[in-house]
């Protein structure tokens, strides 16, 4: 028999049970508090014996015997019966620091800094992991929570928040530069890319707000932020999946083909239903289950806003609603990336027209761009959640993902056609005339033109499809040759 209030296991010869009552040989088990008449009140300790509250991760942490707080007592009065457990409610908050002089030993009630008196069954006490303070935990409905500052002994939070804000700026710049190149607006890949960047921008913005605010955001605002971050990050990964599929489909046989406008629109509608609809269903189910009455089954309830404006710290829920779907998408993206990179490298490096070191280096740059555009580095984010471990192991990859917007801007926003559009806009504002120095068409009308990969993709795709020659021998020679720039 396990006595949860005492965190004690009683062997079968030492207790008996009736329909609703269990009698325990308390004195034989060292639990004289169960029948000691001098105990006049009860005080609850939140976490349990040899446990403490970890402010950084907002959870109870087990102490080893070498820890300074191991075996420490919060209340030492002989008149107080000590039990273990949190108050019975949906959400707990820190009401303040515990002061021994504010405890009434005759009733077990405690007075907090605001002057409010909490009854014995309305609160519990627990020491901090560093042993410097004892917190009073209570139900949210009993008192307004206070913000307990977290001592950042590492620079992770500042670095992540700074990286996310920088990423938001560059993602906004990516959207702005994309709208300057009007010739790309009909391209299917550009549309998918725009949705992806917009979702990532919103998700990064609210995540940066959470990182910077610490624990100052609580209540409905915190819950709403958690729902927004959840939905838009899910949508970002689903749009990323459509981009990866579109890139793979384009280069699967190194023969890009054009689509009719009706086909482009049809495929875009399918992508929209998939990339907006599935995240909406997942996030909607999570919100519905999270708002079920407490009397109903609490299975797979994400409990948004209870842990740093995110999911409650339960692996099953966050796996079901976030890391599970995202992990599947990233695995598919990884396969598509491997197939595309193989077509570009193993397929082209062995061709007669790709021999020089310069051409091979160009192919290598394309593959590096694919790593960014297809979001391969996000795999490390899922791996860090699965394998856990010390934070410094994943510090570099986490920072890379936090700065994802910078890399996207470098690949997408720093293209020659973007700079040309900026120059045209600047000259139109200043009244200068712009001389067209480009030769030949700059953009393909194909839905497969990929602005993210560079201008030369669309140039040669269009040129190869429109340029003809009257020399039949030249036609035969070009039939089986795909210029490297077409896929670069």
From TrEMBL:
An example GO BP is:
cell surface receptor signaling pathway
**Where is the sequence biased in composition, kind Low complexity?**
458-480
Q: Which UniProt keywords are present, listed alphabetically?
A: Membrane, Receptor, Transmembrane, Transmembrane helix
Among its keywords, does the record have Signal?
no
Disordered: annotated span? 433-488
Q: Where is the G-protein coupled receptors family 2 profile domain?
A: 156-416
What is this entry's stated membrane topology? Multi-pass membrane protein
Q: Give me the stretches of Polar residues compositional bias.
A: 433-449
InterPro entries attached to this UniProt entry: GPCR_2-like_7TM, GPCR_2_secretin-like, GPCR_Mth-like
UniProt GO molecular function? G protein-coupled receptor activity
The organism's place on the tree of life at top rank: Eukaryota
Please tell me one Gene Ontology term that the record gives under cellular component: membrane
| Residue intervals passing through the bilayer | 157-182, 194-212, 224-249, 270-289, 321-341, 362-380, 392-414
- PROSITE patterns from the UniProt entry: G_PROTEIN_RECEP_F2_4 (PS50261)
> Which locations, inside or outside the cell, does it occupy?
Membrane
Task: Say if the entry is tagged with keyword Membrane.
Answer: yes
Instruction: Tell me which PANTHER family the record gives.
Output: G-PROTEIN COUPLED RECEPTOR MTH-LIKE 1-RELATED
Protein name, as recorded: Putative g protein-coupled receptor
Instruction: Give the originating organism.
Output: Aedes albopictus
